Fold MFS transporter.
Amino acid sequence: MKKIRSLFQNRNYLRLFLASFTSQMGGTIGLTALMFYLLDRFSQQPAYATITELMLSMPTLMVFFLVGVFADRLDRQKIAQNCDWICAVLSILLLLSLFINLIPLTFIVLFLRSAVKSFFTPAQSALVQGILTKEYYTTAVGLNQLVASLFMLFGSGIGIFTYWAIGVEGAILVDAASFIISGLLIKSCKMSEKIRMPNGKHTIKDLKFTIVWKDFKVGLSYILKHSLLLTLISGFAVFGILNGGLSVMQIFILKYKLAPGNYEEISIILGIVFGLGVLFGSMVASILSQKLMLHHLLILAMFISGGATIVGSLVNTVWLYMVCSIVIALSLPMINVAIGGWIQKIVDPKMMGRVQGWINPLMMLSQSLTLLFIAGFYPGIFAVETLFWFVGGSLIFVGVFYILVLPRFIELEKNEGIMVD
């Protein structure tokens, strides 16, 4: 608790923390409402809901070679705030696409908004790393989990309630307002030039293709030379599978198996339960990260979440499924705190943007492939239970992989003088 109080006494961190919350809220409420709108209007075409999620993951693959370079070469503060404001404008365009009833345009705007948001996380993460010392990194990652759990807890519920009260249009307006608030919070931060531009002053005109490509390769080379970092980052592929699967599987299993008559109401309850689980799990993860070695915490959480995902497909009542969801929610923050805090410790601050620029596209690639898999094979070929087995099995597989390789790479990095665990 002492570290948490110290963090919030740092005004820059407090504003970045609140900005992260409002920005993530802006990416959740309207999209939740939009998914339910498409499920209601195109009930016989569940692929539309999957395509909506796909439009959020695929754009990252189009700009992945730029996001890390931009975060390391340009003003990180301006990148983060401008991402929020551009997303606010695109939210208004999203509203217009629904008003004129042009669903393809809706998907295009979603695609563009996601592409812009891809630049936010590397810049914001690098800013947080710059204003904190290493002893606070793991605690800060734990607080990021609190942000994630809060928008899980309130975002889906507010999105559905807004959808019921004033329609999908109202929810998208909340999105736009959230992005604007986040941008203002980031703009109000007072940070030195060294934090904002650790690699010196550059403008976008300086970023010619040769420079971008060179920095992109430098980032890849940096990762490949560090075995532990490479191993941790490779695990993000399975996190993409988990994110892609959970984004639609929970709605599908409620609508088509457990609660077809009242799946919307149950979705609200499930969202609250899941959010509370992540919220409590975030606090537990912050404590455990100080007690356990990070690789032990990571492996344990992957086995727990993978097993609970598989069991969740086998139950036949909503309440038993919620129990499985709580277990998943409790374990997810442990994975993120362990791997997120670990990477912050071993990566040079000057390289954080380029390293983060590789993490997001890898995760989004696997997330996109998972959503394409679901859109192509569900419900025609695979049952909803099969989706759960695939996701849960992937988590357990990576857990086994980490058991086999992490101890050896940890020892190697220690011998090279890099702080680990």
